Amino acid sequence: MTTSLVKQQYEELPYPPRNPADEKQRLLRTVGDDLMEMNHYCFKGRQNFQDHFRCLVAGGGTGDAAIFLAEQLRDSNAEIVYLDMSEASRQIAQQRAQIRELNNIQWITASLLDIPKLELGAFDYINCSGVLHHLPEPKEGLQNLASVLRDDGALFLMLYARYGRRGVYDMQEIFRALLPDTLPVQDKIDGARALLNQLPPTNYFQRNRDQWESEIGVGGYGDAGLYDLLLHSQDRAYDIDAIYDFLQAAGLQLVDFTGPQKRGYHLKNLLSNPSTLRLCENLSLRQKFSVAEKLSGNIIKHSFYAARNADRSARLEDYVDNPALCIVLTAEMKGMHEKIHQAIVPGEKLSITFTLGNKQEVFHLPGNAINKRLFRYFDGNTPIEKMISKVKIMTGSGSSQTVKAEIEKAFELLHGMGWAYLCNGPASKNQ
Prior knowledge:
Helix content is 38%, strand content 17%. The protein has 17 helices and eleven strands. By secondary structure, the chain is α/β, with parallel strands linked by helices. The strands form three sheets. Strands 3-2-1-4-5-7-6 form a seven-stranded mixed sheet, sandwiched between helices. Strands 8-11 form a two-stranded antiparallel ribbon.
């Protein structure tokens, strides 16, 4: 019964609502699917995406992830397989692809619970965003995904978070009591909006209402967003421990968290007092994530990469065995390496405020002769090995270790803000 209700919801209210004509003006970026970020976290920066790279978008909805992946892989021999049980959602996604003249997507209308009988083959990368927590048996769904994942492949998953969605689950309980499943979809929406307009100021959801306006507001996802958020017939949340257990049951391990709330998983970003941080020194990584999630209190979605082996991310020291490894800045930071190089004054602290999207971040870095030179080579083309030798000669530092230490400081700062990754440079794609 639950599965049929979920299918009915997405046939009547495809989610997220998209106008295919918008593809003429913009490309929507999806969390986890940027090839550079994926390469850093899942393939140690070595993936060139040229050897028939295969992606599965499991629960593709109206096409955001499939379109973004297909556009990035347009000029390769890669294949994207879109899978969703909603015909209405698939039709919107196909229209978007047609407008973009994308021919590298295979379209399948089915549930990911049908994967064992679909003969899809194996995949290098699987995106399953916002789907597993809507299944009657999420473990079965994840095991199905793991069964078509190559041994050296990786998944991106998004699961709802327990603590940041407390107000949502309060309202879901209320609406389940007041609005039975037998009501038509539009009647449930009308009833929910009537109650939302009368919430007392003390209500937990109402106190955080602004956080959800992009989902339920007329200027946001409207009725489709409201139904998906507050009236969904199957919705569960996960905390850190539940995620670890969930992955383990499918033979998978957590690689790392990503997305806009990534910094909220790290205690050093939440606790400024060194003595308090020392209290957490002996905790396992799992325990540290768990404490951080509870301290943050506002993580609403867990966005993360998973694989059979957790050791998948690129590290700076990898340049020793991988001479093509470079520091690459994100598209939003394009050209900033040269501006930062020019702005650094040795002996002075550099403070620059960047606006990325609708969020401001402040960059702080004590300037010196070495990092001033280094930033010129944060261009995505200069291998780290060459960067070290060039800057060592230019500055007369006499020590590769000194230059490496400055690279580590700068990269840790940029990467921690989601502005830089480690990937092989363009020259390696022809190797």
